[in-house]
């Protein structure tokens, strides 16, 4: 147990040194047990700052990427947050720790079922849906914040429509090989947008994303 706490402390210090200055996010990274979201075979790598493989040829993002995107999202307690790409459930857990009301969509049934069971067992109250994430979740719109954890060719119009005025959408956009992080704020007159660092995510598959054969 002491070893795990030391690993967590070193990871938090590392993220701070890389520019993650939001203390609430660092506390959430420290609190959430990342080893629960990966296979036991990869346990020794849980607190390295690296992406790791999970089932169905998907990945759990590196902690810096999770922290960077979450910092850009500017989460406030009580925010209604839509996450596209549940994956392992790790990002959803971080958002819950920050006080968000989390709605998350996954297109792969096995990942959806696994994360549903895991998040519930860890005490996180998350709304989960199995469907095409590029379509959003219109039933509960609008959302204060939307985060997309897969790389898109374009910004899905459905997600912009479901974002509240003043809300923030964080999404990687680019090619299959590389994307830039877009941070979009919805305004009364349209949107304002900033572009940040390059990342590489698994592709966002769906009606307004990449097609399975791409």
Verbal overview:
The chain has a 7-stranded mixed β-sheet with strand order 5-4-3-6-7-8-9. Strands 1-2 form a two-stranded antiparallel sheet. The chain has a domain at 51-59 and 72-199: Rossmann fold, CATH 3.40.50.150. By secondary structure, it is an alpha/beta fold. The chain has helices at residues 2-17, 23-31, 63-73, 90-97, 109-121, 157-161, and strands at 52-53, 59-60, 80-84, 101-106, 127-130, 143-148, 163-174, 179-187, 190-199. It is built from 6 helices and 9 strands; from the N terminus they run H-H-E-E-H-E-H-E-H-E-E-H-E-E-E. Strand 8 and strand 9 (190-199) form a beta hairpin. The radius of gyration is 16 Å and the shape is globular. The model has no long low-confidence stretch (mean pLDDT 95).
Strands, helices and their partners?
Elements: H1 2-17, H2 23-31, E1 52-53, E2 59-60, H3 63-73, E3 80-84, H4 90-97, E4 101-106, H5 109-121, E5 127-130, E6 143-148, H6 157-161, E7 163-174, E8 179-187, E9 190-199
Parallel strand pairs: 3-4, 3-6, 4-5, 6-7
Antiparallel strand pairs: 1-2, 7-8, 8-9
Helix pairs in contact: 1-2
């Amino acid at each position: 147990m002491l070893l795990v706490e030391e690993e967590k402390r070193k990871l938090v210090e590392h993220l701070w040194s890389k520019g993650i200055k939001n203390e609430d996010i660092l506390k959430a990274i420290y609190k959430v047990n990342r080893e629960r979201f990966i296979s036991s075979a990869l346990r020794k790598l849980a607190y390295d700052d690296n992406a790791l493989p999970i089932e169905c040829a998907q990945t759990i993002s590196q902690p810096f990427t999770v922290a960077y995107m979450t910092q850009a999202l500017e989460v406030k307690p009580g925010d209604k947050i839509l996450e596209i790409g549940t994956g392992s459930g790790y990002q959803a857990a971080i958002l819950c720790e920050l006080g968000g009301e989390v709605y998350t969509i996954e297109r792969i049934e096995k990942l959806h079922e696994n994360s549903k069971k895991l998040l519930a067992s860890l005490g996180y109250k998350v709304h989960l849906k199995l469907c095409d994430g590029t379509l959003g979740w219109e039933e509960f719109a609008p959302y204060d914040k939307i985060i997309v954890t897969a790389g898109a060719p374009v910004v899905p119009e459905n997600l912009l429509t479901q974002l509240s005025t003043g809300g923030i959408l964080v999404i990687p956009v680019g090619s299959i090989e590389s994307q830039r992080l877009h941070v979009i704020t919805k305004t009364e007159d349209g949107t304002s947008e900033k572009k940040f660092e390059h990342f590489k995510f698994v592709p966002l598959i769906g009606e307004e994303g990449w097609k399975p054969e791409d």
